[in-house]
Each structure stands twice: as structure tokens, then as C-alpha cells.
Amino acid sequence: MFEKILYPTDFSNEAHKALDFVISLKDAGAKEVVILHVIEKANFDAIARYATKDIGEIEKNLKARAMAEIQPIEERLKKKGFKVKVVIAKAVPYMGILDVEKKEKVSAIVIGSHGMSNIAEIFLGSVSEKIVRRAKTPVLVVR
Ligand code: ATP
Ligand code: MN
Predict the structure, then answer these.
(1) Cα separation values, 92 from 46, 71, 143, Å
(2) Which among 42, 67, 105, 112 has most CB atoms closer than 10 A?
């Protein structure tokens, strides 16, 4: 049931906490983890509009930065015996997550209840809320 897990991360502390639960799913039969970071398209477009540098270069830098954040996560999962796939997308975050859910045929999604904004008064971040509403597979939301 939990063979292939999608773990979307914005590299926030909240998303980081969710990683412990990804690891505990090993006991429930999890074998493979897809680590996904979505570069916010809206942010990227805003930067691109005012950029003096080549936007291809900016995109490459953003991807390299994301890769650097992902590397220790990937290492940790591999050490625990998981097969790991890394995806970096540029999209509206929830759309990028749902897209990978479908393309990779994952069996479940593990996300943080909150992310970078982390406003305590809000029940769920907007990304996790949309994922809970629209995902086809079970979603484990980690507080
Ligand atoms: P909001 O974005 O609505 O201001 P927030 O940042 O506190 O609120 P969310 O963005 O919903 O909360 O984050 C919840 C979880 O969704 C994160 O812990 C992470 O697992 C996932 N997530 C959020 N943004 C991204 C992203 N750009 N790429 C991959 N995963 C993401
Ligand atoms: Mn967010």
C-alpha cells in the first residue's frame, strides 16, 4: 500500500519533520521515495521580468540550489535502504505535486501541515490543503 512515497518539500522545518514519517513507512512496506521540490513559477516569472542576467542561468542556479538542499535528504533515505528519485519542477506548487503524483504512480503522499510561511493561526498551509482536497492517493499530513 505504501510502496512508493511522494515526499514534496519546500525545505522548511515543517517539511523536514515529515521526512521522519517517510522513514517510518519503511515498516509499512515503503521501498521507494520520490523527493520533489517545486520552484514557484510565479516567483520565477517575477524574477525573470526584472532580471538583467540570462533567465536560463537563473533557472540553472535555482535548480542547483535545490539539488544542494536535496542531497542530504537523499543520502539519509538511501542509508535507510530506500530507492530514491529526485524531481525538481517549475510550476504552481500544488499542481507540480499532483502532476508528479500521477506521472510517478505513487502510492501515498507525505507532506508537512505547514511550510515556509508557517502561520500558526492557519489550520493548513495552502499547498497542503489543496493536496488533501485533490490528491488521488492517501495523504499523510505531518504536524
Ligand atoms: P502558504 O504557502 O499557504 O503561505 P505554508 O508555506 O505554511 O503556507 P504550505 O506551502 O502549504 O504551507 O506547505 C505545506 C507542505 O507542502 C510543506 O511542508 C511541503 O511538504 C509542501 N510544499 C509546500 N511548498 C512546496 C514546494 N514549493 N515544493 C514542494 N513541496 C512543497
Ligand atoms: Mn508555502
Answers:
(1) 13, 23, 23
(2) 112
